[in-house]
Amino acid sequence: MSLINKMLQDLDARHGGEAARQGGSPVVRPVASSERFGRPGLAMAAGVGVVVLALGGVLAWRYLFSKPPAAPVPQQPAVLAPATPAPVPQAAVAQQAPQPAAVEALKQEAAKPPRKADAQPARHAVTPAAEQPPRKPATSERPARKAAATEQAPAAAKTQAAEDVGTQQRGETLYRRGLAALQEGRVQEAITTLEQAVLYYPRHDAARQTLIGLLIENQRAEEAMRHLQFGIGLDPRQVNMAMLLARLQLERGGAAVETLQKSLPYAGSNAEYRAFLAGALQHSQRHREAAEQYQAALRLQPQNGVWWMGLGISLAADKRNAEARDAFVHARATGMLTPELQTFVERKLQQLN
Fold first, then answer.
1. Which positions ≥6 away from 177 have C-beta within 8 Å?
2. Residue 34 three-state SS
3. In contact, 282 and 310? CB cutoff 8 Å
């Protein structure tokens, strides 16, 4: 009832104001409570009241569902302050519902990808471990290290080559100085200078061989053997040094066979080397191996009577008398034996016959 009373008051005020502007009196005015009516008058008053209530209901319906009048534009600009928007009534939402065409346009606009300016990255976003890209191994340093090593290798090689050239030149100078001292008869000075030469340049074969020869001539066999062993250790292909060392070892009961066998792979077609190894094996009572080495040497030089004689001796010691007799016959047939060796071969043939 309060809402109805308010509408009535509004209507009364509106119409009263309109009549006052036109110079008349208001249509509806409050009835004073002091007026009294009779029974007929009371019936009329009741009828008039019903009509008034009906009219008020119609006016109230129109007022509720009619568009409210536009609010007057304020004279001063209002200052907008950030505030929480008030909730919109459902009736206003219903009245402002967009048309189908507008709805379709809104759908198309919503389907478009967001602009870069509007796309705000999420703060404190953590990528799951499964979605994180695999970390690549830190291999950028390896090419740099490899390049640095490649650049340093030529420099190191040049430095080493320069040092080698320097030591080789120093060794050659000392070798020539030693030869000059030897020619002048200063043997000890020559030996000392040659030792310095092979110390600066160990692969100076000529200086080492000259030094070994001087040491052997001066009865310094132990020193000579030491230089021979060092030279063979540097280069096992020095078969002549191996034979000389083995000869010195045979004289002193050393391991001559082992020395020769170490350099045997480098002997190749050296018949003298194989014959010398055969003599060292024969000296050690290893006659079967000695016979094999004599046969290898004779295949290279079949006209050597001394080797045929050595083969006959090892075959006879191994109880191979028929083969030994043939070997002694070949030794006599060569005609290269000395009278002493010829007499020895004849005596062996008589024993085997």
1. 193
2. coil
3. yes
Last residue of a domain, one of 254, 281, 314: 254
In a domain, 343, yes or no: yes
Pair of tokens at residue 270: 């050296």
What is the C-alpha separation between 332 and 155, in angstroms, rounded?
A: 66
C-alpha–C-alpha distance, residues 225 and 236, integer Å: 15
- Residue-wise pLDDT for 205-252, tens only, equals 999 999 999 999 999 999 999 999 999 999 989 999 999 999 999 998
Contact 248, 254 (CB under 8 A): yes
Gap between the Cα atoms of 202 and 229, Å rounded: 12
> Token pair of 55, please?
């009219």
In this structure, are 244 and 280 located in the same domain?
no
In 3-state terms, what secondary structure has residue 194? helix
Residue reference for tokens 């066999």 = 221
Domains identified in the chain, total number: 2
Report the distance separating Cα 199 and Cα 3, nearest Å. Answer: 128
What is the spatial distance between Cα 4 and Cα 60, in angstroms, rounded to a whole number? 7
Alpha helices in the chain (DSSP H): 2-22, 39-65, 90-95, 100-111, 141-183, 187-200, 205-217, 221-234, 239-252, 256-263, 271-283, 287-300, 305-317, 321-334, 339-352
**Which of 199, 230, 254 is the endpoint of a domain?**
254
Residues 273 and 193 in one domain: no
pLDDT in tens, 249-271: 999 888 999 999 999 999 988 99
Minimal CA–CA distance to 309: which of 296, 292, 327?
327
Q: Is the pTM of this model over 0.90?
A: no
SS3 204: coil
For residue 213, the enclosing domain spans: 184-254
Distance CA 186, CA 320 (A): 56
Measured CA to CA, the distance from residue 94 to residue 55 in angstroms comes to 28
